[in-house]
């Protein structure tokens, strides 16, 4: 569940809506959707049963909760509550409106979705307008991954958002292209090629390039490599005190330098992610590997089409990282705050997160869901029956707790599109592009 609209941008939460095909392919199949309750009417009495409470959930794009049947199940379990969803197709339209409504204390849904790239700004600027969910009925801190729980926590210990999903990292690769270049194809052997260090991924790319099939690059883009490396850093764009440290952070500069090295060695297909050309790169097999959060599996299946089935596989990433995720928050100005908090807690509980993964492909942010059958035993036929539940669970467990800043998404977009894209596509020197990106970040943040 990251970005779910038709105009993706590079943020800490990559588009996942386009990846919701994952669930349809997971082995074991999906349970039948629960029966739909009687249609809702207008006002507080919403159906023939006279439900006294109507809760609204505001989301962006195809968020997955409704599509997975979770609202219907909740209404069956709570006959006195009706749940209705409102959705804006574009996250970049949804979020400014959410901030406006929070400030005004009006026009809000009872439960609102927030993308990970925006959660720090919401926590920093809207804390007094949101409900502390740490002790909402059914919420257990121990059920969530520590780093996910920390992303929506205030300095005084309040938790203003409950995680819905995450984007743990792997590497997806084309077995046929690897075989043609003389590289191993077994996922365990492939993972060992670069185990422990992203620079080994670069070394593997150079080995691949020496015998690459004609017209096939090792990976899609330098920006994708850079984003993957940053996703596993303990310090990224902001420090724990909320200060912007992107220019001085050696971890960011190391990720930049590695991404640039891929471009300079000719190892990328020089594509911009989430564009038509990138989609065609999947369809025509123009690259052999890609840094691959869990939500990207469905995207690859969609764009690679039937011809790609069985050619793709999934291996462990060099180091754990997380690329994407969302939260649910409860505005304090809502009409039914207690009921809304209970709904948010239920929707993000491990059992429901497992259902959401099974049916829609959104990987759970609740560690307690990893052992449930829908997650633990999940395999993906399109990717050679890769044990995706096991691979991504292990990756999620290794992600470090890292500060999330109020403008993480904007900083990431500038690094990728103002900076690294120029290195990859125009041959601009990495140093010149870095200076341009830093200047653009300062300008965008009025520094």
TrEMBL record:
Residues 1-31 form the signal peptide. InterPro entries: Bact_solute-bd_prot1, SBP. It comes from the Bacteria. The keyword Transcription regulation does not apply. Gene3D superfamilies: Periplasmic binding protein-like II. Keywords: Signal. Pfam families: SBP_bac_8. The keyword Signal applies. This is ABC transporter substrate-binding protein. The lineage of its organism: Bacteria, Bacillati, Actinomycetota, Actinomycetes, Kitasatosporales.
